[in-house]
Amino acid sequence: MSLPPPIDQTPAWRALAAHATATRNRHMREQFAKDPARFDKLSFRCGNLLLDLSRQRIDDETVELLLDLARAADVEGWRDRMLRGEPINTTENRAALHTALRLPAGGNLTVDGTDIAALVHGELQRMGEIIAAVREGTWRGITEKPFKSVVAMGIGGSDLGPRMALEALTADQLPGIDIHFVSNVDGTDIARTLAKCEAETTLFVIASKTFTTQETMTNAETARSWLQEKLGPGIIDWPRHFLGLSANTGVPGKFGIRPEQVLQFWDWVGGRYSLWSAIGFPIALGIGMDKFREMLDGAHAMDRHFATTPLNENLPVLMALAGVWNVNFLGSPALAVLPYDQGLSKLAPYLQQADMESNGKGVDRWGRPLGYATGPIVFGEPGTNGQHAFYQLLHQGPEVIACDFIAPLKSRYPIGRHHDMLLANVFAQAEALMRGRTRAEAEAELRAAGADDATVAQLAPHKVFPGNWPSTTILLPQVDPYHLGMLIALYEHKIFVQGAIWSVNSFDQWGVELGKQLAKPILEELTDASIQHPHDSATSGLIALARSQPRS
Ligand code: F6P
What we know:
- The chain is built from 21 helices and 13 strands.
- The chain has a six-stranded mixed beta sheet with strand order 1-2-13-12-10-11, sandwiched between helices. A five-stranded parallel beta sheet has the order 6-5-7-8-9, sandwiched between helices. The protein has a two-stranded antiparallel ribbon with strand order 3-4.
- The chain has helices at residues 11-22, 28-34, 38-42, 60-72, 75-84, 116-136, 160-168, 187-194, 214-231, 251-255, 281-287, 289-308, 315-329, 347-359, 391-396, 418-435, 439-448, 453-459, 481-502, 513-527, 537-548, and strands at 43-46, 49-52, 110-111, 114-115, 149-153, 178-182, 202-207, 242-246, 262-264, 334-339, 377-380, 401-408, 471-476.
- The relative contact order is 0.13.
- β5, α7 and β6 (178-182) form a beta-alpha-beta unit.
């Protein structure tokens, strides 16, 4: 089989590189002044969700050239292969079918003779029954008291999605059960959480695709010991306090979890794409099954849009292309995710995994080293908090940091003028990054404030903003389950399209393995002073230092 040329050696890539050089000195300020319809032309909709790309450093020609790149990378072909359930995760020989998790009831998807939609809806039905049993108190703890606390234990994709979504949807949460999350193997995490719970009324939800992840299994064992300690070491019925969520359904049984207390998902659901599956149990428990299904419906609406809309109006495709333009042609190393909604405070950590674990790769899907940058460094904080922390660097730092501003038009907690103030800030930030402030404007402002010539000369350089920094604005009607589903699916598909263009496998994560592997012998050495494995002098020195100190 002859391989396609690396994407950076295609005519489409070269045309973009030439276009980037030719337009280097163009300022968006002038483009807005020249074309009053710029916002209308470069903002796009899917239902009530608006994606404004008018403050990206692009014009009609850039968009055309980027669309050529998408065609050269066969984005539509890869999309269709993904949606059909082909094993596009070639290093693990798996499909990436998270879109099947949000198919409506009666949806149609058969892969290798298996009715995937029926599988998904069967498990959703079981999830609903378990949630009803927990909420209605027909499933109780050993002492027959109903559960009041649920502690969800997982890490990475088995934690970040539910944590992010529940935080986003506090306005939808049902009373009666407190939901906690424990992810870190640092004992502080579980110790602090257990201090808020009573053993008799606590249900532990162990979420792990593999059910072998060290952090999660260690926390689960500690939870089991805690229960036994609190409720009597002889209790044999402790499994009543455990629910498992896994794709490796044989393994929870080895831990002691009963088969009927395991919700299943499948190897074709990537960990960082799994909040729509059984891993979403804490979300569904928190907001109820109906609202969880609304979240799935929102994601499905975005899936339909992604699958059927021409590339030049397709939100995930256009958003991805703007990102590729920033990373590869404007040299932007980072993407700031800036939600103007306190509920979305966990969005940036969630997208860090979704984006950086998917596209932070060094070889293409055929194993060839990449000659170009891939995934940006993703970071972020809710506005306006970030404005008073790191925005300084966004506005006047030397590098192009692309920004995604995300804002709901309506607050779930409307109080006085708070929301108008929030919106004023997000709109102003995007405007400031785009416009900047020239030296002449800075001087004029200082003079108007009464500064003398010396002060003007001294301060003006510090008050100049280059502007022309790219940002995307995403507006939602409000952060409710449906629109949160749309928003997350938008990002998932954006990441997918970028992976397709960069020719990487967005669904494996070999880069997380080496550290895990090396931690094993080190743990042996920390546990048993007679063991000594060979290391570099830094690692050996640190181990020796740790061994010489009391650690508990
Ligand atoms: O270490 C990375 C990773 O494999 C993620 O991809 C995954 O989401 C996380 O660990 C947790 O894995 P599991 O769900 O199997 O416990």
